[in-house]
Amino acid sequence: MAVQELKFYQTGTFVVGNRLLDPDQRSVQARTGRSNSLTSGHRACQGCGEALGARYVLDAAMRATDGKLVAVNSTGCLEVFSTPYPESSWQLPWLHSLFGNGPAVAAGVAAALRARGRDDIRVVGQAGDGGTVDIGFGCLSGMFERNDDVLFVCYDNQGYMNTGVQRSGATPPAARTANTKALGPEPGNVFGQGKYVPGIAMAHEIPYVATGTVADLRDLEAKVERAMDFRGARYLHVFVPCPLGWAAPAAITIELARLAKESGIFPVLEAERGEVTAVSKIRRQVPVEDYLRPQGRYAHLFGDPGRPDIVERLQALADRNIARYGLTEADEVP
Amino acid sequence: MLEQIEGSQAVARAVARCRPEVIAAYPISPQTHIVEGLSDLVRTGELAGCEYLMVESEFGALSACIGASGAGARTYTATSSQGLLFMAEALFNASGLGLPIVMTVANRAIGAPINIWNDHSDAMSMRDSGWIQLYAESNQEAVDLHLQAFRLAEQLSVPVMVCMDGFVLTHAFEPVDVPEAKDVERFLPAFEPRQILDPAEPVTIGAMVGPEAFTEVKYLMHAKQVQALDAIPAIAAAFEEQLGRRAGGLVRPYRVDGADTVVVGLGSMLGTLEEVADQLQADGEQVGVLGIKCFRPWPREEVRAALAGARRVVVVEKAFAVGAGGIVGQNTRLALQGLPIEVYDVVAGLGGRPVTVASVRELLGRVLAGEIDPMRMHFLDLDTALVERELDRSGATDRPGPHAENMLRDLGTVASNPA
Amino acid sequence: MFSVRIHGRGGQGTVTAAELLSVAAFREGRHAQAFPTFGSERTGAPVVAFCRLGNAPIRLREPITRPDALIVQDPTLLHQVNLFAGLGADGYVLLNTSRDIAELGLEDLAASLRPERLACVPATELAREHLGRPLPNAALLGGFAALTGEVTIDSVVAVVRERFRGPAGERNAAAAYATHDHVLERMESRSDA
């Protein structure tokens, strides 16, 4: 019988056709035995990218560690919507302490497990961009510097969403937030500010750093699995659209994540000890405008007269990412 | 074994013998020798099975302890002053989560102005944090209180801070008997966590609680601290029985029977207060001392019972509520409600100013002579002339400059001239 | 109770001197307490350390304002800091100096003290000789033992050897003996005179 190898591009994640794949080739999400670490019934918004990201990441981590996992969570949307007293959506051991101390608490958990001879149990720390990039930054750097055995995951929706959509150190330039409104000569968040924490993580030369999005399920799962192969400090930065905060339709969360990657706005890559080891190529580059238009937080850039100059600057940022990380260099015929 | 050693080293050894599994501490004067000592003990293996985390801040330190305790480890940290404040959020978090963390606070003043010397403003600022607060009178008691603290914390699932006067105790060389490992083991059994992060039995710790249940949660916290009022004397009694000496408890009266004037104090000043009481008693004055060993929970009944026979109570404290009055004084007045006792609030020893026998004697003389107004807070050894000169200076110009620098210049401590 | 106040500069081991003295007394079964004036670590700044020796538990913790004995480790402090504040007529003074009282301008002080209780000893020179380093703290304790008799030279030497292991301990002990003997000789020759 003739065999023709098919590649499915419909969603770009090979999710379609899972049922046609061998069980062990399926994504974690597609397996019947998945741990469902963040189970249903939580209070996230419709279309929440973070809820998706957290489930993807933790289920993959649970699989990679054979269920021997403890999660530490900083204050933020994820923590709030997942644990409305007296209920909890978490099906793994989970500790929430404060907003700024996720990485330190996770380090403490890891130390305790090690002291008690149970370092077969692994630790994941997770936080939004606020808890990672801003208020948690000192603790994060400390955790990196000590090389604590923790995988720290940042779900980056580019703002303080839980408190009403305020700007964070991860908010991109020109984006509208509650305190960077589209007012004045420089509407939205200013250019020239912000931190690129994946790069900072790489500067700490920790064993493993990776970025991913909720549009690339397999890629994300593979990265979590890979992260769990390492001991020591690891960092995963996941791009998670927020329909509410970005004023985008709930139905296009995954599409927005894909556009962020395909436009070059969000580079998807892996690094070990400070050196980039792999990048996820842009399959079909799209102009930044395609990514920006569906989001109400960029509405002030469009319309009459709009701000084509700002769009141009954002395109330039995307182009710089593409050049810096070689996101469109073809190294094989797709 | 009785040895002549530095207070900090004694405490480090005592803590090590309590077998903590995770230590996370950030250095700050005057606690540094404690955490350095523990680091050495971990490195040499004398403290085995312990992970020592070099954290990036005090906030990181207590946060790491929270994680470690949540994962079922016996944990410890130490700090002072600014460091205690920097971890303030975590203090409330730890007590709210019911984690039995033990922490040494080497009491030091809080800035501004920056001051590294001893007073109680640090621990006092955190008196409502939900932590139990025990105060050591000597380095021996500091050692003994750490053993009791771990047992107390783990019994009630409440964090405990052991307060010892910074520099005055931490850096003093004096005879201390650090209990042997086997005696510690007998007194302090292995930690059995009430809650633990365990994949075999997953739990969610730290959920949000709204108006429907928050009051009840806080009520239970209060109730648990009140339980400590029974637990603390019981543990102190067990300690005395097993280790053969008295340490801790709620209050310690000294020559209070028959005393018509009792001086109340906390921490290392008690030695001085007892010396003054002895001198005055030799002169025929009926003066006693009440040492407060446990400040939180506040042993209201025990304080009332101890002071009920006095006519005058002089509360000497190393901190105060700015704009309001005494802190220990307020709590004492509460305990003595309805009794015909005159209470005096005296603030002493701020920022490391020594509390001397001479000053306390002179103060009590004036109290006994009716020269001190019980309705006003009194500052021991206040340099009134210095204050008045500064007030005159401030009133005379539009931009008088900072009080602290002006007064230091006045004292000759700072040589620079104003422009 | 016997109160000792030691004056020196940061880096000269003044604090260690007070500690060692307290351990020596402890060894002899006495109660002892030692503590420094506290401050940020700074070499060269004036430092004061205190040591109380007694036969009962020591309850006081305040700085010593009425010392029974003074040890001055650094003669450059003379005339800069009021070293002799609170010293009574029966006080002991041990000065680390190669000069004499007249050269130091301390005749008034000498007149106010009992002559057998004031001693000058070139402890830095003796330390250099025995230790190879100008660290006079251990040496001065030997002198203190001779001058006051509050601790024995044997106790001093024992704690010095315990604190400074190996060759350093031996050399410090030798310096302590030398200083002890120096002071003792001066005291004997004075009483002979």
Key words describing this protein structure:
heterotrimer, B: 419 residues, alpha/beta, seven-stranded mixed β-sheet, six-stranded mixed β-sheet, 15 helices, globular, C: 193 residues, 43% helix
Any idea what the radius of gyration of chain B is? 22 Å
Spatial sequence of strands, sheet with the most strands of chain A: 2-1-3-4-6-5-7-8
Main sheet: strands, sense, barrel of chain A: 8 strands, mixed
Shape of chain A: globular
Mean pLDDT of chain A: 93
Overview of this structure, please?
The complex is a heterotrimer of chains A (334), B (419) and C (193). Chain A has 334 residues and is an alpha/beta fold. Chain A contains eleven helices and eight strands. Chain A is globular, with a radius of gyration of 19 Å. With 419 residues, chain B is an alpha/beta fold. In chain B, the strands form three sheets. In chain B, strands 3-2-4-5-7-6-13 form a seven-stranded mixed β-sheet, with helices on both faces. In chain B, strands 10-12-11-14-15-16 form a six-stranded mixed β-sheet, with helices on both faces. The termini of chain B are far apart. The mean pLDDT of chain B is 96. The mean pLDDT of chain C is 93. The termini of chain C are far apart. Chains A and B meet through strand 1, strand 2, helix 3 and helix 5 of A and strand 3, helix 3, helix 5 and strand 9 of B.
